[in-house]
Design goal:
Helices cover about 50% and strands about 15% of the residues. It has helices at about 10-25, 35-45, 60-70, 95-120, 145-165, 185-190, 200-210, 220-230, 235-245, and strands at about 5, 25-30, 50-55, 75-80, 125-130, 170-175, 180, 195-200, 215. Helix 1 packs across helix 7, helix 3 (about 60-70) packs parallel to helix 4 (about 95-120) and helix 4 (about 95-120) runs parallel beside helix 5.
């Protein structure tokens, strides 16, 4: 049975993607830190689920996840796990920031590399990396988060370009949503200053774009316009706008 491996599958976008793929007949490997939340996702699914409670910010655990699934018929990898650290660059702990980058960028790099090599041998498969509109600009007050998403975005595009030039049937897509109604803001300790889209809508657009072979997927007209503006406007103006938006976020007590 074809299998999809999904990180960050305990809630939000990852859970919604898992349920969509389950309806399409894929067996699931669900990875995240919370065993209880993974079990909830598995209970909601219609196909066989293997849950892997694991902290993927630890590099060795990325290899453990791969080893646990390498004998399965993995056709889809979704790198969705991630979180943000809000505040001025020197105001939050270095440990928190490096942990964020280990998960948001390091785990994506490692898992993409491991699973892509196998997919290339079979000449089939999809990898969907979840980035953000944050990938398109420097982000004052969320500097490490924006930088990590830019890494994911550019890594995905470069690897997808290599596959195209090699004539491979394997596809890599990168999903770049704006604010999504998940527990991201709770972990970052902020409130969204812009109305978010739902995780179900974001997941549906991401999965549909992945199967269509789209390299860059931006859900929603407003987000598409925002992405275009971030690319075309002077960088200083974009950073000033980002700073103003982030400044309106109220830190939770």
């Amino acid at each position: 049975m074809p299998t999809a491996v999904i990180t960050g599958a305990s809630s939000g976008i990852g859970r919604s993607m898992a349920l969509i793929l389950s309806k399409k007949g894929y067996d699931l490997v669900l990875a995240a830190r919370s065993k209880a939340e993974l079990e909830k996702t598995a209970h909601m699914a219609k196909t066989h689920c293997t849950i892997v409670p694991i902290d993927l910010s630890v590099r060795e655990n990325c290899f453990k996840l791969y080893e646990a699934t390498r004998n399965m018929d993995v056709e889809i990898l979704i790198n969705n796990a991630g979180f943000g650290v809000f505040g001025e660059f020197t105001s939050s702990s270095l440990e928190s920031q490096l942990n964020m980058l280990d998960l948001n960028a390091g785990a994506v790099h490692t898992l993409t590399y491991l699973y892509l090599k196998d997919m290339c041998k079979k000449d089939r498969g999809h990898i969907l990396n979840v980035a953000s509109l944050a990938a398109f600009a420097p982000g004052p007050l969320l500097s490490g988060y924006y930088a990590g998403k830019a890494y994911v975005y550019n890594l995905s595009l470069a690897a997808a370009h290599e596959l195209k030039h090699n004539g491979s049937s394997v596809k890599i897509s990168v999903l770049c949503p704006g604010p999504v109604n998940t527990n991201f803001n709770e972990r970052a300790g902020v409130n969204f200053s812009i109305k978010p889209i739902s995780s179900k809508y974001c997941a549906a657009k991401g999965i549909a774009g992945m199967f269509k072979g789209r390299t860059v997927i931006i859900p929603g007209l407003f987000n598409k316009i925002t992405a275009a503006a971030m690319r075309l406007l002077p960088q200083k103006l974009v950073m000033d706008a980002c700073y103003a938006v982030q400044k309106r976020k109220k830190t939770k007590q």
